[in-house]
Amino acid sequence: MNKPSCRGLYAITDAALIADEQLTTAVEQAILGGARLIQYRDKSSDAARRRTQAHALNTLCHRYAIPLIINDDVELAFQVGAAGVHLGQDDPALAVARTRLGPNALIGVSCYDRLDLALEAERAGADHVAFGAVFPSPTKPNEVRAPLELLRQARAVLTIPIVAIGGITPDNAPALLDAGVAALAVVSGVFGQPNIQAAARRYSALFAQGNSV
Predict the structure, then answer these.
(1) What are the catalytic residues?
(2) In the list 4, 20, 31, 76, which could disulfide-bond 67, CB 3.0-4.6 Å?
(3) Among residues 205, 158, 208, which one has the least CA distance to residue 181?
(4) 127-152: pLDDT as tens digits
(5) Looking at residue 50, which CATH number applies to its domain?
(6) Does residue 25 belong to any structural domain of this protein?
(7) Considering the domain boundaries, does residue 106 fall inside one?
(8) Total domains in the fold of the chain
(9) What is the pLDDT of residues 67-98, one digit of tens each?
(10) For 87, how many CA atoms within 13 A lie in the half-sphere containing its CB?
């Protein structure tokens, strides 16, 4: 199986926005709206619940040939056979994740507002890096800010795809794509909307218009 690419709308779940019984339905609506990657993000301590949900989402994503990425939890990604994992500053080292998940796993790394972390992640074998928050974020209001100029600098020196996250709307997203971003990671802009499929379609249309790199 070839490694998937990290391009397009990258929809990230949030337990505060989606009731447990609506999770798979909500994610399916995002996929039908054009999401090209799904990230399961749940910070709760209920391991059994998280495993059940991740397994259900992985089954769904397989049906649509969409990669499921697990936030933070390498072991959970391994247990459910997810396409990959996204690592933050306090998560296991990339080398540990690669050893556990294998060469075809899609591994992303959060780099916040630091180009040095992105360069380090690329050297260590990351498949993509994420910068943000690029705009004020309702999900993480106190997150550091990653300016557009940083994205441009990163695109000039990195060879792997760049993901932008934080406060992204269909209206401000074109500036990110123009700066060289390959994927838009969106939480509330998709899953916090009354019509998830329509919301996802607005983001996906930006890529269909040829704005992606």
Answers:
(1) 41, 110, 140
(2) 4
(3) 158
(4) 999 999 999 987 777 789 999 999 99
(5) 3.20.20.70
(6) yes
(7) yes
(8) 1
(9) 999 999 999 999 999 999 999 988 779 999 99
(10) 28
